[in-house]
Amino acid sequence: MNLAREPASVKRPAATARQAPPIRKQRSILFAKFPPGQVPEASRFLGTVHDLELERREQQRALGVAYDLHQHSLQELEGTLEDQGYHLDNTLMSKMMRALIYYVEETQLHNLDAPSRVLKRSQSEAYTHAWERHPHGDHDDTPPEWREYK
Question: Architecture of 24-113 per CATH?
Fold first, then answer.
């Protein structure tokens, strides 16, 4: 097995001057029954990854991982394992949970990247803009020939 791997390309929010607080995630990576012995091998492989805490759960064929979402995502970690030839649990429940976690983490990363802004600066601002666009004063839509009709 080749342990040298380039990091997966996952969109990360741009670094800002203000350091964001860590977003800790604790997940379980479930492995298939065959081939046996994947948990210790995967643990050794992921042990080389920076900022990643691991916990072997060999009875459940699982590997507990804890990470900061700014550094890693479950999709990135599982994709790396699959690229290295490990077989993850493929049951319907595992697939659904995996898809939900991928979506939640992707949404959180997207929201970190989005600027926070107020919808309206003041309650009356919307009405002010509408009033500026509305013709006011002595404006009359009646044609001049009708106004002077006698």
Answer: 2-Layer Sandwich (3.30)
